[in-house]
Amino acid sequence: MILDDDTDQHRALTRALGPDYDYALFASSSEIFQAAAPDLFLCDLQLADGRALEVLAKARANWPTTARLVISGQLTEADLIQFLNRDLAHRVLRKPWAVEELRQSVLEGLAMTRVLKDRQYWQELSLTDPVTHLWNRRGFLQQMVRESSRARRHRRPYSLLMIDLDRFKEMNDEKGHSYGDEVLRKLSRLFTESVRAIDWVCRYGGDEFAILLPEAGTEEAFEVAERLRLKASAELGLHLSLGLAAYPDHAEDPAQIVESADRALYTAKTSGRNQTAIAGSKATPLT
How many beta carbons lie within 10 A of that of residue 153, not counting itself? Predict the structure, then answer.
C-alpha cells in the first residue's frame, strides 16, 4: 500500500516497482484504514494535509505486523534518529531515491513484515493454551499485574475467580484424554459466552481455570461465580468448585489476590465441592 498525494511521485513509484508487486495507490489517508492490513505500508512524509505522523501512528496501532517505509526529502540526521526511536517507521528512504534503492527497501520491508508476523505468532503461542485457546497462566498473570495497577491508580475494585472442574481426573482416566479435552473446550466456551467483554478467562492449568473480573467487587463476583456454577451443571452436567478473592477486600497485591482465591478454592473443594467459597469465609451451601 502506498500513500502519496504527489502525482509525479505516483508515476515514479509505479515505474520503479513495475509489474513485480501488487499494490494500491492512495492520495488521501481517509480510506486506507478501511482496507485489509497490507504486507508493506509506504508513506510520503510530506503529505499536503500534514497528517503523515498521525497516519503512521495509526498504522502502527492498526497494523502491528505491517512494516512501515517512509519516503522523505526533508529529514535531518537528528530527525531521522528521533523518528525511528518513536517506532513510526522501520525504514526511511530519502529523496531523491534511486530505483534499486527503492526496490531494496521494499524487499527489506516485506522481510520485516514476515519477522513481525512470526514474532506475534510465537508471542501469542507463548501466552495461550493450545487446547482451549484461552489465555494460559503466563498471559493471565501479566494481565493481572496490569489490572492491579489500573485498579490502584483509579481506586476501583476487581475480583478473581479460581475454578476447578470437579473429578476431572476420574473423567479423564475413564473416558480418555480426547474426551477430557473436549469437555475443557465446552467449559471454556461456556465461560467466555457467560462473562462480559472486559473480563479475562484463562486456563490456569490442568482442570483449573481463572477469571479476572475488572470493576467487580465481592458481591458482584459472587453472583457471577454462582451463575457459572449453576450453568455448567444445567447445560454441561459438570460440577465446579470456585474460590473468590477481591481487591481491595481481601488483599492489595496481585500475587496475594491469587493466593487468597486459591485458598478459597481449596476451602470449596474440601467442603464437599460444587460450591463457591469467598476468601476468609466458609463455602456456600450446595444447591
Answer: 8
